[in-house]
Write a structure and sequence with these properties.
The chain has 246 residues and is mostly beta strands. It is built from 4 helices and 16 strands. It has an 8-stranded antiparallel barrel. Strands 4-5 form a two-stranded antiparallel ribbon. A two-stranded antiparallel ribbon has the order 13-14. Strand 6 and strand 7 form a beta hairpin. It is globular and about 55 Å long.
Length: 246
Amino acid sequence: MRMLGAAWVGAKAPTPAGPVNPFTLGFKAWESNIRVSDIDYSYSVCENLDLIRLTTTVDWYSGGSVEKAMDAVALNITQAADNSNKILFDGVYDLKDWAHGERNSMEPAEYDNSGLRDQMISLPDSLCSEGRRLGKILIGWPTGTHINGSMTNETLELNFSGSTVAGFERSFTITDTETKVNVTFELTFTGSFDAANSSQVVLPGASSHNASLISFERATGSATVTSLSLYYVLPSLLISFGMMAV
């Protein structure tokens, strides 16, 4: 399976209170045979192409505005020893307290309208022998997924790895038992800064001139459609499966 991907980095918003990370990192990947140089023409929101989506901050929405937010990944950020203008980041995906917490029936929107639905891995049915019959493998981001990488003002490296027990989209409609699959995954992403579609430049490490080791400044002559720094790349995904029925 060949994928294209995009990552973006943005400064922590001043409101709402909750997130601690000094920046938010987002990533998505979709199946495509288009050349990396033509990535701008490879994606359509209407076609529901996303196979992987992740953000390190999750929002709660109410009436179209963000009411609450929290870090899905608490990032440990350090300056690289070999490059003072490069940062290393490391963390573990953990939303178990929120995802498995008691729901308040008086505030269903706090859960139903959250950004959690944008956190997912959805693998095509062609990757597994049972997939032709049961549909896509629906993984989500399991608690304990390890996320690490590095960032300069020109490059971004991301690594995701984890394991979980996942289900299929049509499992109960086809059989009387729920078919599960043990999934172990590793994803590697190395991208270059896309100045043409970014409205901010990221200044990591010593160039940030602050204790958080990252700052942002407006990119001269850049696009104004988003207040983010964008990176494009061809990701690599390694997956292993083990079938089970429950």
